[in-house]
Amino acid sequence: MSWDRVVDKFHWLDEPFADDGLRADIIAAVEHLEDIPIAELTRALGGGPTSTTAPGCVNRFGSAPAGL
Question: Which of 13, 15, 20, 51 is the one with CA 20 to 30 A from 5?
């Protein structure tokens, strides 16, 4: 998969969880993964909301949210 396709897919998957700026920070960190301190990557990854379940998604315990 090309880098452009990976970035497009990341935006599609992460849009419910992160705004444009945070997604850009994560993409930049991953793109330069070999050149940055791991703390920079973890700082970018930790910048989103604390909830990991978007409406309609299966939560981490494998069950759908109530009402689905």
Answer: 51
